[in-house]
Amino acid sequence: MAADSPILEVDGLTLAFGGVLALNGVSFPVAPGSITSVIGPNGAGKTSLFNAISGFYRPRGGSVRVEGRAIDRLHPPERARLGLARTFQNIALFRGMTVLDNIKLGRHAHMRTGLLDALFYFGRARREEMELRREVEERIIDFLEIDHIRKAPVGSLSYGLQKRVELARALAMRPRVLMLDEPVAGMNREETEDMARFILDVREEWGVTVLMVEHDMGMVMDISDHVVVLNFGQVIAQGLPRDVQANPEVIAAYLGSGNVDDLRRRFAADARKVA
Amino acid sequence: MRIASAKESYAADEALFDSAVQRRWFAALLAALVLFPFAADQYWAFLACLAAINVIAATGLNILTGYTGLVSLGQAAFMGVGAYTVALLENRLGTPFFVNLPLAGLAAAAAGTVFGLPSLRVKGLYLAIATIAASFILHFVFANWDSVTNGVRGITVPPATLAGIALDTPFKLYWVIMPVAVLMLLGAANLFRTRVGRAFIAIRDRDISAEVLGIPLLRWKLTSFALASFYAGVAGGLWAYFFRVVTPESFPLILSIFFLAAIIVGGMGTILGGILGAVFMTLVPEVLKLLVGAVAPVWPDAVVLLSPVRTVVFGALIVGFLIFEPQGLAEMWRRTRRAFHLWPFRT
Ligand SMILES: Nc1ncnc2c1ncn2[C@@H]1O[C@H](COP(=O)(O)OP(=O)(O)OP(=O)(O)O)[C@@H](O)[C@H]1O
Ligand SMILES: [Mg+2]
Fold first, then answer.
1. pLDDT digits (tens, 9 = 90+) for A165-208
2. Of all atoms in ligand 1, which is nearest to the CA of residue A230?
3. Domain that holds residue B51
4. Is A43's C-beta closer than 6 angstroms to any atom of ligand 1?
5. Distance A213 CA to ligand 1 centre (A)
């Protein structure tokens, strides 16, 4: 396979809820090692797109391919095992567990411990758990700077920290494509900058491809290689951040009013905020 | 005050009893369990055996309902499957108890897996109703499959034997029942140090995201049902050796409700909760009976007048727990322990 053929490819994806087309023939490639962002107004279908890629919704038509292989018939856990790891817009951590256990949970699909191993906590179970603990500590907890909360119940954490724990859990999933649904929503400026840095470092150090939904234009324009714009379930533009930003259709969709200059100013201000 | 609890290694941090103090307490508890029968009369040995059997069944239900979030009112029926399995194996094949008990567990696990299938589509109250249906079906089978179960007359079970000795008193059976209970509790505790236990909890907390995170719901829900029923089956097998006669009426729906109450009172989703709840539910009625008996010499009418009150007090205790300690006895225990660890700096 050529080096730049897409690691993930969405092809003509169509998804309907009753009469509403949440996705309508959505197609775009995700290049390996890239940071690809999906943007669009509220209700454009971004989360639905993620859910369709995860296998959580069954699309009416179209296809999702990972390294050229169609995964449309795979169940969500099988897709997770292929390396499609994700976080959720409305944080989906397990409140009854500690931070450490939440992160460990991400590795589930790559472990082999069965019921009997587990009951006796012997041999494979012990070995796997020890390996996992070491890797989570040394590669993930250190990296994301969450050492101080590893034993805390997730319910007690701030919103920003919970988002970081979700990222940690996604990293434990051995991601090849890391799908982040609004990773900095509701964060203050400092937390946003930290998260942007983590995303860039993840790509750098782990060689992971990132597919991200985000409303923070400053961050999107700053760190993305490729931007896809959704509106009413359709891709209305895609390309380099710079080109998408200048596209009048995008600006119109975003503002509704079509006041281009105003939006340009907003993009610029957002960009300064992150830089 | 507890100090110096920082861990030297990940292995130490992941241990079941993660401090020397805890390990010492556990050793003391085991010693107490070994010495208990020598100090107790037959009546208390009887209660200890019954409590241990109930602890096993309640712990199984706790795995399913407390940890996996699947409400079941079929636990007693699966116990019945185990009890009948032991009764049949003893009478027809005469195999030893250490073979029969695991087989009782496996037979119940098989039944539990089948009756767990609805959990793939429904949960909560709907699943509870589906499991009630399971217990009616099993009751029907016990009562009507004459050639195997001997119908409503039931089956008499010969005592378990070990090295030629018939284990026909609570004192003797204690040496089988209590070790089995301890082993099964350790197994349950181990489970939650591994991916299996984490998968159960994830399914309880949010089954839909669990699936996207790589956890196949079908596999683990059925595993949880199978395991809970295995515990019920072994408990039922021990029950058969303990009471020595198994009839369709031995495992009524009310017994399933008893186990559910035990894990709620004890604390759902904690191993300790299953133990405390089952012991509480088994012993409190007996303790109340003793209290009534104690006042009988000074107040001869006590037995007649107070016996109905006993039931009411028992019910009130349960309701009181639900209101004042919804997290159960295990949570009370945890709080007490914490107070000791922090003493005298905080109380
Ligand atoms: N489970 C569902 N059932 C019915 N309609 C749905 C469902 N999920 C999403 N929709 C609809 O699909 C459309 C797209 O929703 P989606 O959540 O994908 O938007 P989004 O782009 O993620 O928006 P936001 O930026 O607010 O997160 C909306 O009209 C929404 O109401
Ligand atoms: Mg969304």
1. 999 999 999 999 999 999 998 888 899 999 999 999 999 999 99
2. 21
3. 41-342
4. yes
5. 13
pLDDT in tens, B131-183: 999 999 999 999 999 899 998 899 999 999 888 888 999 999 999 999 999 99
Ligand 1 binding pocket includes A45 (Cβ within 6 Å):
yes
Domains of chain A as residue ranges with CATH: 1-83+175-275 (3.40.50.300), 94-174 (no CATH)
The predicted pLDDT at position B346 comes to 56
Structure token pair of residue A127: 């070995």
* Residue B216 φ/ψ region, left for φ over 0, alpha for ψ in the -120 to 50 degree band, beta for the rest: beta
The whole-number pLDDT of residue A272 equals 59
The CA distance from A28 to A21, in Å, is 18
Does B236 reside within a domain?
yes
d(CA B123, CA A57): 20
In short, whether A17's Cβ falls inside 6 Å of ligand 1 is: yes
Complex ipTM value:
0.88
* More confident of the two residues A37 and B319: A37
Residue A1: predicted pLDDT? 43
Chain B contact set for A134 (CB, 8 A): 10
For residue A2, is pLDDT > 50? no
Say if B206 falls within a structural domain: yes
Residue A42 CB less than 6 A away from ligand 1: yes
Q: Which of B190, B214, B176 is nearest to B52 (CA)?
A: B176
Is 70 exceeded by the pLDDT of residue B345? no
Give the model confidence (pLDDT) of B19-39 as tens digits: 788 888 889 999 999 999 999
Could A77 and B215 be called an inter-chain contact, meaning their C-beta atoms sit closer than 8 Å? Answer: yes
Interface of chain B against chain A, CB under 8 Å? 10-11, 13-14, 16, 187-188, 190-191, 193-199, 201-202, 204-206, 208-209, 211-216, 223, 227, 269
Q: Is residue B158 part of a domain?
A: yes
User: What residues pair up with A153 in beta bridges, in sequence order?
Assistant: A98
B12 within some domain: no
DSSP string, B258-301: HHHHHHHHH-TT-HHHHHHHHHHHHHHHHHHHHHHHHHTTT-TT
CB A96 within 8 A of CB A68: no
Whichever domain contains B275, its CATH number is 1.10.3470
Which ligand 1 atom is nearest residue A48's CA?
18
Average pLDDT, integer, range B56-71? 97
pLDDT at position B163, please? 84
Q: How many domains does chain B have?
A: 1
Q: What is the pLDDT of residue A257?
A: 47
Total Cβ atoms within 10 A of residue B70: 27
Q: Which residues contact A143 (CB under 8 A, 6 or more apart)?
A: A171, A198, A201, A205
Higher-confidence position of A42 and A253: A42
